[in-house]
Amino acid sequence: MRVTSQAPRPAVHGVGFPADPDFPQLAIASDPERMLELFRRHLEPAAGKRYRIQDCIPLRFRCRQSTARCVLQYTLHVLEPGTGRSWDQGVTGLLYAQKGAAERLWREMQATDPSHGIPDDWLTFRLVGFIPDLEMVVQVFPYDRKLRNLGPVLGGALRDLEPQLLARLAPGEWCVTQRTMEPTRYRTELGAALKYTLQVRDGGVGRAATLRCFVKVYRNDHGEHTFELLKSLGERVERGETRYSVVRPVAYRKELRTLVLEEAPGTALQQLLRQGHDPAGPLRLTARAVAAFNQDDLGNGDVSRSPLAVQLEELRRGASIVEWARPQLATEVRAITAAVAAGLEEVPPAAIHGDLKPDHVFLAGDEVIFIDLDSVVLGDPVRDPAHMFAYVAGRVGLDAVPVEDARAAARLFAAEYFDHVPAAWRRRFGLHCAGALVEVASAIFRRQEAHWPEKVAAAVAAARDCMG
User: Fold this and answer.
1) Same domain flag for 294 and 272
2) Are residues 35 and 105 located together in one domain of the fold?
C-alpha cells in the first residue's frame, strides 16, 4: 500500500515558551532547531535504511497533562538520499515531571516488539526511542502504545470492505489497482483519522475511477456510538425529515475500534472562507442548518446530556493552559472565566454538535453536511454558534483572511443563526462566546500555530470584548 502524508504548517521558530520548574526540558523541547539536532542524533533509521531529517516542526503540544506529563507532537520533514523521496514523519515526545519516569516507561515499551502488526512500508525509524538529554520518550508514528489497533488498519485489515465501496460505482468488472492511506489527523494516545483512497479500473471497458473514504481509529469504543448516531440521522436525512445532512457511515469494526465514513460531498466552509469570495451565502446556509440541528430531537439517536458543570470544567481547563502559556494574561483570563461561570445557568438541553467549526461543515450547493459528530450531546444549544463564532473570529486555520473580514463573517453567521432560533437564546451568546474564545486561545497554543503568542492575546482580547 502506498502511503502519503500532509504538508506541515510553517515552522515556529524563536517563540518564547513558558518556564516551568516541573518541566525544565520545555525550553529545549519547544525549540524546533534544537529538537532537530536531537532527533538527528537519537532517531535510528529502521534496519537497512538511511534518511536525512531536514526540518522539525512543532505540531501539537498537550502540556501539564494532569500536572504529571507533557505530550509533544512534531512533524519531521525526512529525505531519503538514495531515492530523493521525501515525506513528513510524525513523532511524539513524552516528558514526565517525576524523575526517572520517562526512562522506566521507555524500558517497559522495549519489553515487547513495537513493530508487531505495523506494515514494513510504515517503518522508517525505530519506533521507540529515548533522548537522555531531555529524559524524553519518543514514539514514531504509527506506533502508539495506547492505539495498537492503528497498525492492523494500516496493514490492510479493512480490505474486505472494498466490495462494499466498489458497489457505489456503476456496474462493471471493477478491481483495485492501487491503495493509499494518508494520515489527516493524529492525536497521540487518543485517535487517528486516515484518508483511504482506491484507484480502480473496470477490466471490461477500461474505465478508471477514484474512490475515497475516511477511516477513524479510536482508543475506545466511542466510534460505535458515533456510527449508530450517524446511521439514525442519515435515515432521517433520506426521509427528508431534517434541514441538514450528515456524513454517511460505511461500517464500524468493533475488533479494530475503527469507523469508516464516506467522503463528504462539496467543499469545507473553511476552504470557502479562505478563497476570498463573498462568504455571505455559505455562512447563511450554515447558520440555518446549525439552527435546525440545535432544534432537532435527533430522532432515535442515543445522545448523552452535557450539563453546564461539564462546559465550565472544559472552560477552566482551557483557561489554565492559557494562564500557564501566557502568564501576563492570567488575571484577565481568570476574570473572564469567573464572569462566564457566574453569568450562565442551566437551561433546557438541546442537540449540539459539540465541536462546530469551519472545517467540520461542508457545503454542496444548498446542502449543508456536518462531519466529525463524535462530540454530539444534549446541552445549551448556544454553545454551537458561539464555538463557530470563536473559531471564525479567532481566525483558526484562517490566517489568510484579514482580521476585519473574519470578524464580519462571524457576526454575519451569528445574525443569521439568531433569526432562526428562539429570541431568548441570544441573551446568552456573549457569555458563551467569551468562554469559547478562551478555549480557542488554548487551542491556538496547543496547535503551536505560527505567532501563537499574538494570536492567543488577540483571542483573549476578543473574549473580553464579548463581555460587553
Assistant:
1) yes
2) yes
Task: Please name the residues in contact with 192: beta carbons below 8 A apart, sequence gap of 6 or more.
Answer: 142, 144, 147, 150, 183, 185, 186, 216, 217
> Does 389 lie in the same domain as 457?
yes
Closest CA to 40 of 27, 50, 25: 50
Residue 149 lies in a domain: no
Residues 237 and 363 in one domain: no
Say yes or no: 171 and 56 in one domain: no
Closest CA to 229 of 379, 351, 376: 376
Ranges under pLDDT 50 in the chain = 1-14
Residue 94: inside a domain, yes or no?
Answer: yes
Of the candidates 154, 87, 159, the one whose C-alpha atom is nearest the C-alpha of residue 125 is 87
**Pair 59, 121 in one domain:** yes
Residues 154-207: pLDDT tens digits? 999 999 999 999 999 999 999 999 999 999 999 999 999 999 999 999 987 889
Based on the domain organization, do 372 and 404 belong to the same domain? yes
- Of 161, 289, 167, 162, which is closest to residue 233 (Cα–Cα)? 289
Supply the range of the domain harboring residue 78: 2-143
The span from the CA of 209 to the CA of 178, in Å, is 11
| Beta partners for residue 75, in sequence order | 57, 90
Q: At what angle do helices 308-325 and 330-343 cross, to 10 degrees?
A: 170
pLDDT tens for residues 313-354?
999 999 999 999 999 999 999 999 999 999 999 999 999 999
For the chain, the domain total comes to 3
Find out whether 357 and 409 touch, Cβ atoms under 8 Å. no
433 shares a domain with 373: yes
